[in-house]
Every structure is written in C-alpha cells, then in structure tokens.
Input
Amino acid sequence: MCVTFPLDHIFPKSRGGLATLDNLAFACPWCNGFKRDAMSDWDGTSERRARLFHPRIDVWKDHFRWSRNRLRILGKTDIGRATVRRLKMNAREAQFVRSFLIAIRVHPADDPDW
Output
C-alpha cells in the first residue's frame, strides 16, 4: 500500500492563495478532501465560526489532544473543534488507521513532542 500526502494550499488557491512555501503544507489525503476551499467552520461549543488550524502559525498541542485510547483527536479550542469537524478527523476510517499505528507502535501520540 502506498500513501501519498498532497500539498495543500493553507490559504486556498481558489481564494487567492499563492503556491509559495509559506502557504503550502503536506496534508492527509482524507483531511485535504474535506477541507476543499474552506477556511473556517462551525464550532458548536462557542456557537460561532472559527478559522481552521493553520500549520504555519498554530501549535498542534494548543488546539488538539488525543483521547485516552488515542483513536480520536479532540479539539481544545474553537479552532481545534472547527478543524476536527470540517476535516472529519475522527471518521471511522481515520480511527482504523490510528488503531493500526498503535499496533505497530508508530502512533504520533507516542512521541512526546506531539
């Protein structure tokens, strides 16, 4: 099985984003497909729209945490929750991949820097 990670325009090209290094990031193909040209989504906790996580300016630990079983990503902030919602980060397929990563001991949550 081969998995590739497409380059995502953080600020979408369709909205004027440029193909420059500071606006490109490798993305999970699953998440990238759900992001499309979105820059924000609804956060049900704050009951407002929030911008999506920006990998160049945001710190993952500030906005997300792992569930106890490490299968789900939980949003800690409005940005985190909106991103989890928009990118469908906890879909069954994503959790299946994470269970495999746990089994082979390469899950990101095992890394103290995550």
Remarks:
- The CA atoms of residues 65 and 74 lie 5 Å apart.
- The longest helix spans residues 92-103.
